Amino acid sequence: MKRATGLVTVAAALLAGAAFAGETAPQDVKFEDLAVNASLSGGAGDPVEGANVFKSRKLGNCLACHANSDMKSELFHGTVGPAMDGAGDRWEPAQLRAIVADAKEVFGEQTVMPGFYSVNVGENVREDLIGKTILSAQQVEDVVAYLATLKE
Ligand code: HEC
């Protein structure tokens, strides 16, 4: 029995490795015409997970800057950026992916929106954060899938 459990653990580790195999590293993301065409994780996003990334302070914290009528039950909606209502009408998924991955590539250097899948986050970054992105490739795909559902 012990041996079987070991094999299951090995199989799970291999599967977890495979999940990362199709992933694009932040420095390899290709921006073309203000869009990123390929999925960053190599797979599809989950809009339910994406809604969580959007509102969670520990993840995207997007609600801190963007109001969103789809999340009426949340108390605080920021107004630094435009409201997210109809974002899925205004932008193609490839454009939403570019905005979330690195807003500077779309709106220019002066934007206050963070680059959520960028290692280009400026100087004086805490040592333990160098090379890390705010969101994982899959979390970006999830939030993009969620934004695509916001239609008016
Ligand atoms: C610090 C504030 C801030 C945060 C946090 C932030 N944004 Fe933004 N965002 C902006 C601003 C400001 C703009 C408008 C572009 C500009 O002028 O820089 C914008 C623009 C956008 C747009 C295009 C707006 C439109 O509909 O025309 C989308 C989509 C977007 N943000 C999604 C997100 C998502 C998703 C997150 C979380 C993962 C997020 N933003 C987090 C400030 C922010």
Automatic annotation (TrEMBL):
Residues 1-21 form the signal peptide. One of its GO terms (molecular function) is electron transfer activity. Transmembrane segments: none annotated. Keywords: Heme, Iron, Metal-binding, Signal. Pfam families: Cytochrom_C. SUPFAM superfamilies: Cytochrome c (SSF46626). It comes from Nitratireductor mangrovi. This is Sulfur oxidation c-type cytochrome SoxX. Residues 45-151 form the Cytochrome c domain. NCBIfam families: thiosulf_SoxX.
